[in-house]
Design goal:
Elements (H helix, E strand, L loop, with lengths): L1 H14 L1 H12 L7 H21 L5 H34 L1
Helix pairs in contact: 1-4, 2-4, 3-4
Length: 96
């Protein structure tokens, strides 16, 4: 029981920064300063965490937090590509 609470605490602590990152990325409208490799590695890490729970049969409340973080990182990845499009559009306009 305590190990599950500690795991939930870990995942929640990791997840606290994602809403702020999403908001900043949404407002910034630029992909500059954002690492796609970092986002993808975190995304894969959360997938591995969920898979580990499923394979072990040890499904607990922590899976909810893994999934929540996975969704937020996924939003971050989508925003990265949206912002990259804005960056490309700005570059085209600057060349004119």
């Amino acid at each position: 029981m305590i190990s599950e609470l500690l795991e939930i605490a870990m995942v929640v602590c990791f997840g606290i920064s994602w809403p702020a990152s999403i908001i900043r990325s949404y407002k910034a409208r630029t992909a500059k300063g954002t690492s796609l490799m970092f986002l993808v590695m975190i995304f894969l890490g959360y997938i591995a965490g969920v898979a580990a729970k499923l394979v072990s049969g040890n499904i607990s409340y922590s899976v909810f937090f893994y999934m929540l973080n996975l969704i937020m990182v996924g939003i971050g990845i989508i925003l990265y590509f949206r912002n990259r499009g804005y960056d490309a559009q700005r570059e085209r306009e600057e060349r004119k």
